[in-house]
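Input for the complex:
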Amino acid sequence: MTSTRFTGAAFTDDREREALAKIARARATALRAPHFRDEFITMAHGAGGKATASLVGGLIAPAFASAALAALDDAALVDVGDVRLAITTDSFVVKPLRFPGGSIGDLAVNGTVNDLAMVGARPLALTLSFVLEEGVASDVLRAEVDAIAGAARVAGVEIVAGDTKVVERGHADGMYVCTTGIGRWDSRAQLSPTGLRPGDRVLVSGSIGEHGMAIMLARREFELDSEIVSDTRSLWPAADALLELGAELHCMRDATRGGVATVLNELAVASSVTVVVDEARVPIQPAVVGACELLGIDPMYVANEGKFVAVVAPQAADRAIDLLRGITGCESAAIIGDVTADPTGMVLVNTSFGGRRVMDLLVGDPLPRIC
Amino acid sequence: MTSTRFTGAAFTDDREREALAKIARARATALRAPHFRDEFITMAHGAGGKATASLVGGLIAPAFASAALAALDDAALVDVGDVRLAITTDSFVVKPLRFPGGSIGDLAVNGTVNDLAMVGARPLALTLSFVLEEGVASDVLRAEVDAIAGAARVAGVEIVAGDTKVVERGHADGMYVCTTGIGRWDSRAQLSPTGLRPGDRVLVSGSIGEHGMAIMLARREFELDSEIVSDTRSLWPAADALLELGAELHCMRDATRGGVATVLNELAVASSVTVVVDEARVPIQPAVVGACELLGIDPMYVANEGKFVAVVAPQAADRAIDLLRGITGCESAAIIGDVTADPTGMVLVNTSFGGRRVMDLLVGDPLPRIC
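Predicted:
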């Protein structure tokens, strides 16, 4: 099976095409102008999928007449004087606080740094705000402070401001951490979630699903021994490398909550295109495949904390892969699919068994509190 | 009783002077190079007093080799290109979420905007991160989103980026909110917590203690009916007015957790001076005095969310008061004390009854989760 099969329009059956187009129109309407009708907040609203999109797009964002926020990108671009800044914020509520490959402190730095990197901004400074639980051991806090300091050094960012609050026993799980990142936009970056064009190639920067599965296994709710390690790391070196492609790099997005599937759906809707993924080409470690099969979870929906999706012009795809494979953590970067024109706003998967299916946004929350 | 009584050195008794100097040296050592030796985090670590100072100064800040953070100012100043930015962050965990005069949404905007204003930076943009509790009513969230949008409009800031996480029932009290603020430093501002000089006058921008007492009474733990309303508001208009004083304005600091007493202690230590407060001149609403007396709380330690301390050169004090009284919310601005040289790092209060006492940092947490 080669990738060429998925380039351009592959819909020979008119009826299938018509049915998909109908679904696509309904989806696009729902995602672009979402209504929020739920009476109560549920865990699904935090999962990064459909419910999150309706909460953010239907309740939160409309209250703020903000062009930067309306873009719903990983980070906002804000001009101050002659400087274009990127600004992003994230709260971290991962459970457990420490897991193979990292901890909440690593995530708090890398997750925020990566949102800056994805809009083409060099991370400069972070703020750090703790909500601590009364009774948490000082050594637990000290370990996270050290993890944050270490990850910040590696990522080349300075912690410039902080805050600490304490809530009563039982009202936070050890700690919640909120980081906000400030970066300086790199003028080589011509990136936009609306920038996907038919013919573009879709890349992932490495093997997927490790972070989410590492967290699931660390909770020990399942009788499963495995050596899956979180992929948490700063993506700025990889993003910096890809920015060499200039205008041929159309979009980057890190595949965190909701996984690669969610990112591709968001981009397909934003750009009014369809993304066709060749399942067999998606790099996944055998241990992750095994754990996902046992738990009945599709790895395309599992969170990553050190992997991203990039969409590039067709002529730049091979160069992009070469650039990525030279960066630590991106050795298994791969072209996984293509952008087509029709229908709009869908993600289709050509499965390893030769079938084709729609890959929708995540519904519900099979993997709560993974970041 | 006039303020002149407190100008300059008022220590005629050599023994008293010697004893105070000894206490002052020990305090300064403890506050400048604090040790953190507690085994567990307690509510006191979130109260803004001594325990918070030891946690931040002894455990958190030393891990980050950051000049901006080491300053421990309300907001960090960071140069990006030719632009000097101010950056600050705060988590809000106030209980209850709504109270007379405001709500967690108002605090989340005003508290962060005010930290920018206090370093002389015009607030430009805010980020907004929610940790929501599973099961919270959507209308409760909607009310806070609306409060945030309203307060942001009044303060003239744009919400540019956001994040939403959900934790299980019982693991957050409805919601916690983290806001980070970006401002542009105003070049008229020559402010520093180390900028207090003997002879300077100490001002408060209005009557104190309203926010903390409004929260305490809203909890209905006490049988006390009162009409105390939180003073939450943006302080940028007042700060902007005072910046007209240029280099004669030495320092501003909003008197939030730990109240005016904590701010004065921090400034006295940072500048190696003593602040002498004339208790009778501190503006306090009668209802706040009454509630504080009934609950046995010193209003100087009660949090404000719309009042600040300013320290100005002696010749600028009257002009500062005139400027402040022209700003809504600052009508009762007053000179409350003076800066003296000796002993260093102390705050002394001349009481309304003619006595004198040391006003130390807050110990413990009589008013938990007021912001």
